[in-house]
């Protein structure tokens, strides 16, 4: 990585992803450049909070400067702005790692997946942190001295592929912490003006939990307090404005949307803690990162402890904010964070509260709730199989697409609309809604006016497998077993069909079974179909066919059982074939029909015929015969 060395200084190359991010920053015309200041102030506040926590064990780290603060210094004539904190600071290695690479795997994946150069979409979607400084600065200098260290380092870059590092004399460095100095570009000189800085801090950073002061250069007004650093989450709800919540949400989430739900309360009783949590309105880009980590910040009596405690379950990992405990000890070690009974109890209490607030929202503001569900429903449903205790609560707020209209349906809606004699909740699994809607297995349900839930999220295959049912009704797949449809009356306006005789269908089924051999476990007449001639369903007791497919695609070892081929006795083609079978003879045509219809059923399930060449040869033979 080292390119050159002189007088103790070195030039290092940014990691490829950082270079990509920087070029986006420099070249994209993003309408809201203000956000760089929020990012740098957030970093400064985090650095102070980290040191506050560390000093609990090592009080001497604070020396004679126990009060944390962030100092903004603007020099209008010189066109510079600096953001200085007396926080934890960074040593040489940390400067290289933190300001030369991108640590978060999700960010990397996101960047890799990004095509074109639309940086504004990128910044709009998630906080890009430190590197956003290059939206307004032609060069950035970072001088840092870690708390308790006798060394200080200077990092410098103009954002063009490399950065420089060199040790600096202590008198040129902050006594403790980090100073970021921006040399503003001509278009961004306004950020050296008091009015602009005050406006941006008021909008984005007024509630970071560390005080912020502004120093204006030259013979300016001296020092002015811009934020008092008080903990917003400890204020009474009635004393906080929506705009203040939204601004604080920006700080804790690193996102640029507005929260869809704000949950602010103080729990009293066995455990005492304050909660200020937000449900975002936009999906964080790393929502489906396999680590599934939450980022709720744990505080103990106003002191930041960690955002890695995973207080909330994985299926609430999109929730952002702060939980501040009165009861936990301040010197929480990593081991103490795991399986801590107080933290467990807090996690449970807060989870229940989030569920009940979401339920209330669904009742009072259905539209807002539906947006939340649209963004996070797929994640919340993970709780249905991994959090048995919460299952009923999640059932209550879960919403589904179904064959009944385009809107969202709750399970309660579904159960209220059961057809006479209907005892199960029917669902169809698949990769996308349109494909599921088109599956032949739904036809007989439509004819009887039975609603079918359309489950298209990958997680659906998992929870529905273990679900015991809702309101005493089991969940049943439309492709599973021989659905007991005959007892449910045909819906009004649907004609009874004139079907082939039972014995003729029986003969045809036996011939088909012989022709198909082990490819199918049975062939039988179906009440599941109306317009399609055939479909495939799971064998008796076998798992849902779509679930099998999803699992085997994920390399999970589930042997795929032979399906059942169902025939539609009301379909003209099946009727014709049944008559031929009953009359005897026609062996070759009937064998072709068996193989081709089986292939067709596979195609309708989104699969290819088992033997494409054979399929094509048979179609050719039939068409030639039809011509003759
Ligand atoms: N003022 C600072 N003092 C100490 N460490 C800092 C400071 N600024 C940045 N860092 C370190 O650099 C890292 C990278 O910062 P950056 O702003 O790029 O990302 P982040 O804050 O981790 O994530 P994000 O901003 O996307 O939420 C931080 O995690 C922190 O460790």
UniProtKB/TrEMBL annotation:
<dbReference type="InterPro" id="IPR020568">
    <property type="entry name" value="Ribosomal_Su5_D2-typ_SF"/>
</dbReference>
<feature type="binding site">
    <location>
        <position position="85"/>
    </location>
    <ligand>
        <name>ATP</name>
    </ligand>
</feature>
<dbReference type="InterPro" id="IPR036890">
    <property type="entry name" value="HATPase_C_sf"/>
</dbReference>
<feature type="binding site">
    <location>
        <position position="98"/>
    </location>
    <ligand>
        <name>ATP</name>
    </ligand>
</feature>
<comment type="subunit">
    <text>Homodimer.</text>
</comment>
<comment type="function">
    <text>Molecular chaperone. Has ATPase activity.</text>
</comment>
<dbReference type="GO" id="GO:0005737">
    <property type="term" value="C:cytoplasm"/>
</dbReference>
<keyword id="KW-0963">Cytoplasm</keyword>
<dbReference type="GO" id="GO:0005524">
    <property type="term" value="F:ATP binding"/>
</dbReference>
<feature type="binding site">
    <location>
        <position position="43"/>
    </location>
    <ligand>
        <name>ATP</name>
    </ligand>
</feature>
<feature type="region of interest" description="A; substrate-binding">
    <location>
        <begin position="1"/>
        <end position="334"/>
    </location>
</feature>
<dbReference type="Pfam" id="PF13589">
    <property type="entry name" value="HATPase_c_3"/>
</dbReference>
<comment type="similarity">
    <text>Belongs to the heat shock protein 90 family.</text>
</comment>
<keyword id="KW-0547">Nucleotide-binding</keyword>
<feature type="region of interest" description="C">
    <location>
        <begin position="550"/>
        <end position="628"/>
    </location>
</feature>
<dbReference type="InterPro" id="IPR001404">
    <property type="entry name" value="Hsp90_fam"/>
</dbReference>
<keyword id="KW-0143">Chaperone</keyword>
<dbReference type="GO" id="GO:0051082">
    <property type="term" value="F:unfolded protein binding"/>
</dbReference>
<dbReference type="GO" id="GO:0140662">
    <property type="term" value="F:ATP-dependent protein folding chaperone"/>
</dbReference>
<feature type="binding site">
    <location>
        <begin position="125"/>
        <end position="130"/>
    </location>
    <ligand>
        <name>ATP</name>
    </ligand>
</feature>
<feature type="binding site">
    <location>
        <position position="39"/>
    </location>
    <ligand>
        <name>ATP</name>
    </ligand>
</feature>
<dbReference type="InterPro" id="IPR003594">
    <property type="entry name" value="HATPase_dom"/>
</dbReference>
<dbReference type="InterPro" id="IPR037196">
    <property type="entry name" value="HSP90_C"/>
</dbReference>
<protein>
    <recommendedName>
        <fullName>Chaperone protein HtpG</fullName>
    </recommendedName>
</protein>
<feature type="binding site">
    <location>
        <position position="90"/>
    </location>
    <ligand>
        <name>ATP</name>
    </ligand>
</feature>
<keyword id="KW-0346">Stress response</keyword>
<dbReference type="Pfam" id="PF00183">
    <property type="entry name" value="HSP90"/>
</dbReference>
<feature type="binding site">
    <location>
        <begin position="105"/>
        <end position="106"/>
    </location>
    <ligand>
        <name>ATP</name>
    </ligand>
</feature>
<feature type="binding site">
    <location>
        <position position="178"/>
    </location>
    <ligand>
        <name>ATP</name>
    </ligand>
</feature>
<feature type="binding site">
    <location>
        <position position="334"/>
    </location>
    <ligand>
        <name>ATP</name>
    </ligand>
</feature>
<dbReference type="GO" id="GO:0016887">
    <property type="term" value="F:ATP hydrolysis activity"/>
</dbReference>
<feature type="domain" description="Histidine kinase/HSP90-like ATPase">
    <location>
        <begin position="32"/>
        <end position="188"/>
    </location>
</feature>
<dbReference type="InterPro" id="IPR019805">
    <property type="entry name" value="Heat_shock_protein_90_CS"/>
</dbReference>
<dbReference type="InterPro" id="IPR020575">
    <property type="entry name" value="Hsp90_N"/>
</dbReference>
<keyword id="KW-0067">ATP-binding</keyword>
């Amino acid at each position: 990585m080292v390119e050159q060395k002189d007088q103790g200084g070195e030039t290092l190359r940014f990691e490829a992803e950082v270079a990509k991010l920087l070029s986006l920053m420099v070249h994209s015309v993003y309408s809201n450049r203000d956000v760089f200041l929020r990012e740098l102030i957030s970093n400064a506040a985090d650095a102070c909070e980290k040191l506050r926590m560390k000093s609990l064990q090592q009080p001497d780290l604070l020396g004679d400067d126990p009060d944390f603060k962030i100092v903004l210094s603007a020099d209008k004539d010189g066109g510079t702005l600096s953001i200085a904190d007396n926080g934890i600071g960074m040593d040489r290695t940390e400067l290289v790692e933190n300001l030369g690479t991108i640590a978060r795997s999700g960010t990397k994946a996101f960047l890799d997946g990004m095509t074109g150069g639309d940086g504004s979409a990128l910044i709009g979607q998630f906080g890009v942190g430190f590197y956003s400084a290059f939206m307004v600065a032609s060069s950035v200098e970072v001088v840092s001295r870690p708390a308790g260290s006798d060394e200080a380092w200077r990092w410098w870059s103009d954002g063009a592929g490399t950065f420089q590092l060199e040790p600096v004399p202590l008198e040129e460095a902050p006594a403790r912490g980090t100073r970021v100095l921006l040399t503003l570009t001509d278009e961004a000189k306004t950020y050296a003006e008091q009015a602009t800085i005050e406006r941006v801090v008021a909008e984005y950073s007024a509630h970071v939990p560390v005080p912020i002061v502004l120093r204006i250069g030259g013979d300016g007004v001296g020092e002015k307090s811009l934020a008092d650093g008080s903990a917003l989450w400890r204020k009474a709800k009635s004393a906080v404005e929506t705009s203040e919540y939204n601004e604080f949400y920006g700080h804790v989430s690193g996102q640029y949307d507005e929260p869809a739900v704000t949950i602010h309360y103080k729990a009293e009783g066995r455990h005492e803690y304050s909660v200020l949590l937000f449900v975002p309105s936009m999906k964080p880009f790393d929502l489906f990162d396999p680590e599934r980590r939450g980022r709720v910040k744990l505080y103990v009596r106003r002191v930041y402890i960690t955002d890695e405690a995973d207080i909330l379950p994985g299926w609430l990992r999109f929730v952002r904010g702060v939980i501040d405990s009165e009861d936990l000890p301040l010197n929480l070690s990593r081991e103490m964070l795991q399986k801590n009974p107080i933290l467990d109890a807090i996690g449970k209490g807060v989870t229940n509260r989030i569920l009940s607030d979401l339920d209330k929202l669904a009742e009072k503001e259905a539209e807002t709730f539906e947006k939340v569900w649209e963004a996070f429903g797929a994640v919340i449903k993970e709780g249905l199989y991994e959090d048995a205790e919460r299952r009923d609560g999640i059932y209550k707020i879960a919403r589904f697409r179904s064959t009944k209209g385009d809107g969202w349906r709750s399970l309660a809606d579904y159960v209220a609309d059961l057809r006479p004699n209907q005892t199960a909740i029917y669902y169809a699994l698949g990769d996308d809604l349109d494909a599921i809607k088109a599956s032949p297995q739904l036809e007989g349900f439509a004819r009887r006016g039975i609603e079918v839930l359309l489950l298209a999220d990958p997680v659906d295959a998992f929870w529905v497998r273990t679900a015991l049912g809702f309101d005493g009704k089991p969940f049943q797949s439309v492709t599973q077993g021989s659905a007991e449809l005959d007892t449910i009356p045909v819906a009004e306006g649907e004609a009874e069909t004139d079907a082939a005789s039972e014995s003729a269908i029986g003969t045809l089924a036996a011939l088909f079974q012989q022709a198909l051999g082990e490819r199918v476990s049975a062939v039988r007449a179906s009440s599941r179909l109306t317009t399609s001639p055939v479909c495939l369903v799971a064998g008796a007791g076998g798992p849902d066919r779509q679930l099998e497919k999803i699992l085997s695609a994920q390399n999970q070892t589930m042997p795929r059982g032979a399906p059942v081929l169902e025939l539609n006795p009301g379909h003209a083609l099946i009727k014709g074939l049944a008559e031929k079978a009953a009359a005897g003879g026609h062996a070759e045509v009937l064998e072709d029909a068996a193989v081709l219809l089986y292939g067709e059923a596979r195609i309708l399930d989104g699969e290819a015929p088992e033997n494409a060449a054979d399929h094509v040869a048979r179609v050719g033979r039939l068409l030639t015969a039809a011509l003759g």
